[in-house]
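Page 37, continued from 36.
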């Protein structure tokens, strides 16, 4: 071994710039990936406010998000195009969580689950539901069945990710995640109870509210997780407990 390098290590002097630069670059890339989680939630809220403006008669309080991309909906193409960045941002975030886990096995599993949840987002354009009028007239197809199945799988994945991340990152975040889980179960149940009205083309005055609160709770959880991991990256002395 070069005696010059050895002496530099023993004296604790700063290593040459060419050695430390890749580490800083890797840290910056990790921060970008984690920040994508925050951007994904902001973007999803934004398109939920924007896209309904181009669907005459659509009511966010009484209609679900999937109706914006339903077969025959005037906003189907617009929603698909604008939802793509959300999927890509979440894929980047899931990868960031995975990479930032280090030796934390539970956090690594949470990152893998978020990555799987995000990748499945690519399938949504190929499994659309039909409009209420079509469903009520018996026009449901395999696409509607797959839409429901995909929804169940993605919900299972992000709830599992929530549980593993909660177990990995200490008591404050664990408590917050438990509160989030309770809210997801509550408003998810309320959405499910009203869902039969969609297929029957019956009034569902609050289903859009229940579903959007359910979605919003998850989006907020992603933001909090991203901020926590970013804080740990910028300040390694922060304890996960």
């Amino acid at each position: 071994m070069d005696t010059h390098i050895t002496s530099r290590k023993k004296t604790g002097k700063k290593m040459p710039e060419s050695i430390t630069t890749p580490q800083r670059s890797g840290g910056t890339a990790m921060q970008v990936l984690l920040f994508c989680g925050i951007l994904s939630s902001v973007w999803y809220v934004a398109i939920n406010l924007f896209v309904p403006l181009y669907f005459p008669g659509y009511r966010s309080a009484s209609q679900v998000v999937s109706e914006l991309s339903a077969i025959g909906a005037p906003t189907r193409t617009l929603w698909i195009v604008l939802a793509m960045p959300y999927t890509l941002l979440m894929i980047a975030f899931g990868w960031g969580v995975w990479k930032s886990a280090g030796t934390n096995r539970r956090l690594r599993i949470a990152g893998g689950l978020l990555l799987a949840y995000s990748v499945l987002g690519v399938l949504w354009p190929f499994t659309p539901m039909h409009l209420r009028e079509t469903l009520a007239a018996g026009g449901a197809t395999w696409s509607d069945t797959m839409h429901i199945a995909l929804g169940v799988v993605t919900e299972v994945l992000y709830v599992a990710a929530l549980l593993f991340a909660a177990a990995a990152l200490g008591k404050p975040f664990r408590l917050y995640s438990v509160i989030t889980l309770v809210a997801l179960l509550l408003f998810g149940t309320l959405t499910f109870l009203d869902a039969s009205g969609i297929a029957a083309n019956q009034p569902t005055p609050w289903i859009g509210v229940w579903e959007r609160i359910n979605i919003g709770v998850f989006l907020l959880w992603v933001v909090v997780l991203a901020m926590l991991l970013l804080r740990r990256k910028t300040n390694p002395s922060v304890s996960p407990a």
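The chain has one domain: 32-234. Flag for discussion at group meeting. Residues 17-50 form the longest helix (34 residues).
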